[in-house]
Amino acid sequence: MVFMVGMLLGGDRPKEHGSCHGYLFEITADERDAVASLGVTPRLPEDTLAAMRALPLLLVLVAAAPASADSFVGATGGLMIPLGDSKSDNSGWSDQVSSSPKIGVRVGALGESNVGGMLSVDWTPISYNYQSQAVDVSAHRFRIQAHVLFEKHFAPKLTFAARAGGGIDIAHASADATILGTNFHTSDTDVGWAFEVGGGVWFRLGDMDIGGELALPFGGHSHKASNTNEITFDYTSYDVDLLFGVRLRS
Question: Is the pTM of the predicted complex or chain greater than 0.85?
Answer without folding.
Answer: no
